[in-house]
């Protein structure tokens, strides 16, 4: 029996063609537009990361690092895992990922 089934969903990653700064801007806008209990707002930000705070003090941390012609995006949250997955899925994929799907 596996315990901590949630732990596999707390850190999610995606690669995108968007520049890192655009990813962070997009994340800030995406989570601010969520309704009610799913909204989260900027709390802290550095050059390639941000921390958002949502309902009940829940934290979402997002980092974006440009490397080899694309941007690696990592996002972590304990309670907002579904919303984090939606955000990551909304990012335009890299050319390699798009070709793999086609």
Q: What's the gist of this structure?
A:
With about 100 residues, this protein is an alpha+beta fold. It has a single domain, classed as Kinase associated domain 1, KA1 (TATA-Binding Protein, 2-Layer Sandwich).
Please give the number of β-strands. 5
Strand percentage lies at 25-35%
Order of SSEs, N→C?
EHEEEEHH
Q: So what's the CATH class? A: Alpha Beta
Rg is 14 Å
Keywords:
alpha+beta; globular; 102 residues
How does this model look, in words?
It is a single chain. By secondary structure, this protein is α+β, with helices and mostly antiparallel strands. The chain has a single domain, classed as TATA-Binding Protein (2-Layer Sandwich), CATH 3.30.310. 30% of the residues lie in helices and 33% in strands. The chain contains three helices and five strands, in the order E-H-E-E-E-E-H-H. The chain has a five-stranded antiparallel β-sheet, with helices on one face. A hairpin with a 4-residue loop joins strand 3 and strand 4. The longest helix is centred in the N-terminal third of the chain and has 14 residues. The relative contact order is 0.24. The mean pLDDT is 88.
Topology:
Blueprint: E1 11-16, H1 20-33, E2 40-45, E3 49-54, E4 59-67, E5 70-76, H2 81-90, H3 95-101
Antiparallel strand pairs: 1-5, 2-3, 3-4, 4-5
